[in-house]
Design a protein that fits this description.
Immunoglobulin-like; 8-stranded mixed beta sheet; Ig-like_dom; Ig_sub; 3 domains; 0% helix; 340 residues; glycoprotein; mainly beta; 5-stranded mixed beta sheet; IgSF_CEA-related; immunoglobulin domain
Amino acid sequence: MRPPGLTLSPPPAAALLLSCPPPARGQAPTFAIRQDPAAARAGGDVTFVLEPAPGRVLSCSWYRAPSTDLAFEIFTYFAEPDLGQLNGSAHTGRETGAADCSMCIRQLRLNDSGAYTVAVRHIQSRGALGAAPTRSRPDRPCLPPWRPQAPVTLSVPCTVPLTQPAVTPDNATVTENDTVTLSCRSPPGTETVAWLHDGAPVAAGGRLSLSPDNRTLTVRPVQRGDAGAYACQVSNAISTNRSDAATVTVVYGPDGVTVTPPGPLWLRLGSRLELLCAATAAPPPLFAWARGNASLATGSRLRLDFGDPGQAGEYRCRATNPALGRAAEASAGSTLPKPA
């Protein structure tokens, strides 16, 4: 019994394509065997096709071995007369032949991996003259001593449901216009890797690039719209799995500092004023208020009870990005006593 997860890699073998009686020197037909699909998967089907097509043949015999040993015969298909398929001792119930000497194996299993040999018996073979073979026990193809040709080896990889991948780093903070790189740690058996940004597929192009195997995503230069949740999705023939989201934070600003209402403002003595400061930044900016060289308060709002003409002047708001140390200012303009 094979351990779970084992990928079978059988030794190379040759497919023997034979005819009897042996043709004259230099006249031996040569065939190649094409596997369709080229990458077989457990649970799927595969077909072996002879190229070029062998033309009119009496029979085709397939063997589950690198030889034509009768103990490994899967079946013999009798094409002329059309007697159909006679199964051998190595037939599992999943192999089907055809008059063109092809063989289809359905619902592949891991133990289908190995070498396969076909022997082609042409219509002019001895024993085909005078009487046709019977379904009970037709004559077996004779095996002239030709050199092996057209190797065919079937490999059925162990395809198992994929475990969950992971994105590293799972939390990245990057300054706008710098570079961020994310990697997908994919499980064994992964065939394809795709990326998603806030649930939408990511395609390479412009500032986004992917490694040849799609396992690494690079954004250069980063813009503030690149912030969000990133995940990688892995797939194989039988399963798909997605990573937990990794968070990318783009640090920028402050930009667009404003004070509302804008000045100049005329106020009556005894009136109350509230100023609001706003700015665009990530992380959220810190606000501080000042008039002249005097610091007044922190926070986005400044409330004033205007009771003294000496309070008149320019009120400024300073917004600071706590991660970058960058700052920008805006002013409410002049605040003046309203004339009587």
